Amino acid sequence: DGGAIGVMDLEEAKAQAREANLDLVLVNANKQPPVCRIARRSDLEAQIVDKLKQKELLKEKQQTDLYSFDPSLKIKYMRYNCRIALPDFQRYILHHRELLLKKHRTEAVIMKGKAEEEEMRQMVVRVIAELKDIAKPVNLPLPAQSFEQPSVNVLIWPCTPEQAATFKIPKVAFAASDEMWNQQRAKEEAQRDPRNRRARQDPKMKDGKSARQRWIEQQERDGDGGVP
After folding, report:
1. Cα–Cα distance measured from residue 33 to residue 175, given in angstroms and rounded to the nearest whole number
2. Which of 9, 90, 107, 166, by CA, is between 20 and 30 Å from 195?
């Protein structure tokens, strides 16, 4: 009748199953004592299959409520290096957005390279932030040990603006990401400065000026316009 019989000997349980013309089915072998059911095996298998189907339907419904993608399209992969140059990053993000707008599910692969774990975390936040108006991450939070690996994968699926509004990036992480990005932008601008390039090539350069230029300026300040 579906009720619990209690703890009994294995042979006694088998005898009861035979008397009822049913099967003795092991349900949970990890419990002590093991849990069994006296029932028809085919009925139990049908119940398990039905539960799995209901679970899949519930999962699909939840995904439909949270995301807006085309299940017939393949998942697309986008690779980002933690120390990628800003122009390249912007180009990658533009292509990533195009895929999301076409309703592709995407997977961002953040490559660690020679970067630190913190840089890896900030790159994850930065990618999510750039796409947060049209997509949301699926597999957050990421396990801490995943940042010890050469790469970390973030599932980013498309969604409507209303669905995207339900996801908020932590302000602390976002601020840290902005700080990191501003530092990288300043570094790249400094590298593009011709005076800094000359300074790297000429060890005598200081403040973007050669020793001769500094001597001439010093003479002009002292009122002596002579040139050696």
Report:
1. 54
2. 90
Q: Do residues 223 and 212 lie in contact, with contact meaning Cβ atoms separated by under 8 Å?
A: no
Strands 106-111, 76-81: pairing is: parallel
pTM higher than 0.90, yes or no?
A: no
Q: Could you tell me the sign of the dihedral formed by the alpha carbons of 26, 28, 30, 31, in that order?
A: negative
pLDDT single digits (tens) 188-224: 667 666 555 555 555 555 555 667 777 778 777 776 5
Question: Which residue type occupies 20?
Answer: A
Multiple choice CATH, 76-191, 3.40.50.150, 3.40.50.720, 3.30.110.10, 2.40.50.140:
3.30.110.10
Task: Please give the Cα distance from 223 to 114 (Å, whole number).
Answer: 52
Q: Please tell me the predicted confidence (pLDDT) of residue 158.
A: 93
